Q: What sequence folds into this?
């Protein structure tokens, strides 16, 4: 096992820069998710750690050793691809044993390694099957088995669950996390699904346009987003943003209605953006008036999409009393969990 | 045809089936005639009016072909040239096609087009200069040189085909193998070759057929009787013989075609899946 350090890592394809200098420290045994919208450079960064892409600038160190220019096979890293990339003409056992075969391990060593991984992943009964004879979840598990067999320093995953249906995705998510708790191998996991990122990670790296927006523990990012991008990306449904001004200890919207500010921000006096998560709005008779547009009950909670003027606001209520479309409801933000962002920079003011 | 019938699910296939039959008759007609004639006696073969079916089938023509002292040697030459040319084409075409599919380098497109263009130069245009060249350096009548020339004719298509087959293999499979610790050679050997095997079978078959059926290359560059192939021997007989025995010739033709037909039969399954490519999804 090893730690992974990225220091001002850059990547350009020809003249087009796609990663503009990323610095991340991943501790030994840590589970880190790289999360961000499509095209932000997650896969590129992961592939640079793997050694499948050249590093255009900066340094990558694995276990203290600088690996810029070191080929993949000498980095002792295993990677699980989105489409699994199993070897179609090899059985499950052969797929998992391929790396050992390349290492010229003896037949017995190979069988033992494959058997151990197969037991961990409950693949023992499928060892003689070919990939085409497996379900998506089973293929996924074989891809992981192939990684486990090698007992590498670092596991890399690139959106490994995105080809699975929703139910299986949740199940495999748990399995991967359990696997990590058991093996304690340093893991870098790429996803664009923030729920996956939140639930699995010890540490989340939020990326946007080739830059790191924020690094932190899941709840850190949820409770203390550094800026509007992170605030909007982490949490589902996304945080509501309202434009207006901080004045006299209150936040005044364009139509003149006012929202409370936390004590620490009451001194502010400037244009700003008010951020409040849907789950932090509660119904209250002296609250902001909203017109209900759509009501989406899911059982445990109800998501209400409502309008305040032209502004759309999403609320989540846990009580069973459902508002009707067209009805006017009044909501009040939980002032302790409100964020205010600088209007031009998007950074959080505190 | 009534509207009710033409809207049925199978009617769309009727014209296709008719067309296939039409072409089958055109292609198979002469083959059937050759086959029938090969079993006729010499007299019946030239009888007027011709008989469709041999009155008295005989294997005499086949025995005669096998008794011919030069037949074995001609057959052997044909096999050596064809197999040698195809093996050589694959030795060149697999690495070249792989490189074309997987590496980016300056001028790749241009290079690939040049390779394709060489196969568009009509073979006859090269006959005289190549003959002159070989004659000057004293390499006429060399089996190796003939094999190389035959191979050169199928190398462009081999490179292009292989490149397409390799492209159909998802690159992540290779990257996965890289991570597993394989080097480029191990990847080609353990993954690419098995995965594109249907494609290799297809190009090899096309190559065998092309070289096996070649007449002009061998006739011109290896005029020596000891170096000739079945095809050359066949044509020589047409011109050399005082009186042509058609039934004997047709037996010869049937035997000469056998290896190619057998080859098709053997690799047919691969051949189809090879040509339709993309058959390598995990
Ligand atoms: N081979 C390449 N040549 C040029 N540009 C590339 C290449 N590969 C990726 N890019 C660009 O680099 C940027 C980052 O791509 P990357 O694949 O890392 O995104 P991602 O965050 O993984 O997105 P997704 O969630 O869609 O997988 C994109 O803008 C992409 O267009
Ligand atoms: Mg990606």
A:
């Amino acid at each position: 096992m090893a730690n992974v350090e990225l220091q001002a890592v850059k990547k350009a394809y020809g003249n087009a820069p796609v990663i503009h200098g990323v610095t991340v420290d991943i501790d030994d045994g840590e589970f880190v998710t790289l999360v961000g919208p499509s095209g932000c450079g997650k896969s590129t960064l992961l592939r640079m750690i793997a050694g499948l892409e050249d590093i255009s600038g900066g340094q990558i160190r694995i276990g203290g050793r600088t690996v810029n220019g070191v080929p993949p096979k000498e980095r002792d890293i295993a990677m699980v691809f989105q489409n699994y990339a199993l070897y179609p003409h090899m059985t499950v056992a052969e797929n998992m044993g391929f790396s050992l075969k390349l290492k010229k391990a003896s037949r017995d060593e190979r069988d033992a390694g494959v058997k151990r991984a197969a037991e961990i992943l409950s693949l023992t009964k499928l060892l003689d099957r070919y990939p085409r004879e497996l379900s998506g979840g089973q293929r996924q598990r074989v891809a992981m088995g192939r990684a486990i067999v090698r007992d590498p320093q670092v596991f890399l995953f690139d959106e490994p669950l995105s080809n699975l249906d929703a139910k299986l995705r949740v199940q495999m998510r748990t399995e991967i996390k359990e696997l990590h708790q058991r093996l304690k191998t340093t893991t870098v996991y790429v996803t664009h699904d923030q729920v996956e990122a939140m639930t699995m990670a010890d540490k989340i790296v939020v990326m946007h346009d080739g830059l790191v927006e924020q690094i932190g523990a899941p709840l850190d990012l949820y409770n203390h987003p550094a800026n509007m991008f992170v605030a909007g990306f982490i949490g589902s449904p996304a945080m509501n943003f309202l434009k207006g001004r901080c004045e006299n200890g209150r936040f005044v919207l364009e139509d003149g209605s006012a929202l409370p500010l936390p004590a620490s921000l009451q001194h502010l006096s400037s244009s700003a953006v008010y951020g409040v998560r849907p789950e932090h709005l509660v119904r209250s008779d002296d609250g902001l008036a909203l017109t209900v547009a759509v009501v989406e009950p899911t059982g445990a909670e109800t998501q209400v999409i409502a309008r305040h003027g032209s502004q759309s606001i999403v609320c989540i209520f846990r009580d069973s009393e459902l508002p009707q479309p067209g009805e006017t409801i009044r909501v009040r933000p939980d002032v302790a969990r409100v964020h205010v962002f600088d209007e031009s920079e998007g950074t959080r003011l505190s | 045809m009534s509207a009710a019938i033409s809207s049925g699910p199978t009617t769309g296939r009727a014209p296709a089936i008719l067309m296939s039959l039409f072409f089958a008759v055109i292609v198979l007609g002469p083959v059937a005639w050759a086959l029938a004639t090969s079993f006729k006696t010499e007299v019946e073969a030239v009888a007027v009016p011709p008989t469709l079916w041999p009155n008295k089938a005989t294997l005499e023509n086949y025995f005669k072909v096998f008794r011919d002292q030069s037949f074995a040697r001609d057959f052997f030459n044909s096999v050596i040239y064809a197999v040698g040319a195809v093996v050589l084409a694959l030795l060149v075409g697999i690495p070249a096609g792989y490189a074309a599919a997987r590496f980016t380098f300056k001028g790749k497109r241009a290079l690939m087009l040049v390779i394709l263009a060489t196969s568009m130069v009509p073979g006859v245009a090269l006959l005289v200069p190549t003959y002159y060249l070989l004659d000057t350096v004293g390499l006429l009548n060399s089996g190796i040189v003939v094999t190389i020339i035959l191979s050169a004719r199928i190398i462009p298509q081999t490179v292009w085909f292989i490149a397409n087959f390799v492209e159909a293999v998802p690159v992540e499979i290779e990257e996965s193998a890289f991570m597993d610790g394989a080097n480029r050679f191990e990847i080609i050997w353990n993954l690419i070759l098995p995965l594109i095997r249907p494609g290799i079978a297809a190009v090899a078959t096309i190559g065998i057929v092309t070289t096996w059926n070649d007449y002009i290359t061998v006739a011109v560059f290896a005029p020596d009787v000891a170096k000739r192939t079945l095809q050359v021997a066949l044509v020589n007989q047409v011109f050399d013989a005082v009186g042509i025995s058609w039934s004997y010739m047709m037996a010869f033709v049937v035997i000469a075609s056998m290896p190619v037909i057998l080859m098709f039969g053997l690799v047919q399954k691969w051949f189809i899946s090879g040509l339709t490519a993309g058959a390598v999804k995990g």
Chain A has a mean pLDDT of 93.
